[in-house]
Structure formats: C-alpha cells, structure tokens
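I'm stuck. Please check this protein.
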Amino acid sequence: MKKWTVCLLILCLGIFCLAPACAAGTGEQHYITDEAGLLQDSQRLELERQAKDISQRYGCGVYLVTVGDYTDTAPGSVYDCARVIYTQKNLGLGAEQNGLLLLLSMEDRDYSLISHGTAGNAAFTDYGKDVLTDAFLPALADNDWYEGFQLYLEQSETLLAQAAAGHPVDAPGQNVGRFHPLAILFSLVLGSGVAAIVCLILKGSMKSVREAAGASAYLEPDGVQFTIRQDHFTHRTQTRRKIETEVKSSSSGGSGGFSGKSGKF
C-alpha cells in the first residue's frame, strides 16, 4: 500500500513539474498586438489569421505591435524599444527565432521595422525593408491603419516567397522578372528595324536641301531684327519642405542578430 502511495505521489509531482513546460511549448503566440487601439476586433482577428498563416508557411514570424508611447516600454530609441519587445515577448520561429516586427508608437508617430535570425535577415534585407515600407507607409500616413497593416503583411509574404525561391530582394532592379534570350534578340532586331526606317524617312525628306553659295540665302527677306528685353526682379520666394529623417540600424550577433530601420509615418 505504501509503495502505491509513493508511486502516486511521484506521478503527481512529475505532472505538476511538466505542466508549465508543456503549456509554454503549446502556447498560442500572438502576431498582432494593438495596444494603441487602432483596430476593430474583427480587423485585428483577420490580421492575426493572415499573419499566422504567412508565418507558419515560411517559418518566419511576421509581427505587428502598436503602442501609445514607446518610451513607456523601454528607454532609448524606437529601434531599441523594438528589440526589447522582440526579446521580452520571445518572438520569432525556429531555433534562431526568425522573424520581422513592425512597431508603431503613436505619441510622435515613430515606427521601427526590425528583422531577426538568419532566415529573417535573408528575406528582409536592407533594400527589402525599403521596398516594404514604401508599400505600407503611405496608408499609415493617411491614418488608414487596417489598409496599411494589410499591405505590410502582403508585401512581407511577397519578400518571404522570393527568398524561399532563392531570389531575395537585395538591390534595386532585382527580381522584377527574367527575360528570355529570344525575347531580348527580338527586341534588338525590332529596335534596329524601327531605327533604320526612321533614318530612311529623314534622309528622304532632306533631298530638297541644297547648299547655298552665299550667306544671304540663309537670311529672311526682311533681314534680322534685334529687340532688347529687360527683366526686373523685385522679390524672391523660397519654398521649404521638411525632410523626414530615417535611421538604419543593426546589432552585433552575426547574421542571426537584429537589423532594422526607423523613421516617421
């Protein structure tokens, strides 16, 4: 009887110790955190579904966090805050915690876009982040939050898909489509043919032109008349435009560390 009691106690103790670990391993990870209250519940749930699908399909988490004022979360820059949030929330997928995080701070309309992990940095290169922000920042500048966040997810999926295909976006003009050699040859032949036709037409229109013996042939019958015109400037107007600064940052830790960019929206 005592033996069974001891075995039962050991079993209960084992379950009690393993329960937290099991819960942590199967816990649901949130991809959309809207502390600033920019989204309706239905919009947040739809974005959560989209982000989860993209993240699990490519093994790279795509996250969004909105806050009222990032300085309430962590000191330093908005980029530093994004790193703190990524670390504290244990974001990312896989052993290297591959992922992408967009942080919005509404107080001064700051944003930071960071990537982490070898796969995360490979898909979201410096130029790739520029392409990404060009896609969604205009909508955020117009306070169209749901549209901007959808564009953020859609463009992230595009960059992940191109990286998975072996063609990550890493320089202007890359990955915009491949041209078949025959198409290039056809374009060259067609261009040469059009140029030749244009030259023949121009040459034909020049047959009536003859070289004149004297300079008088090049003058109008009434001669040459000169007029004098003076412009007087009374004042000068200067137009100034505010240029938003953008900071790109990276951290140590090799290809698996953080890299990102920050700015205003």
Helices lie at 2-26, 41-58, 78-88, 118-123, 126-141, 145-164, 181-205. The first helix runs from residue 2 to 26. The two ends are 71 Å apart (CA to CA). Confidence is low (pLDDT under 50) at residues 4-27, 175-187, 239-245.
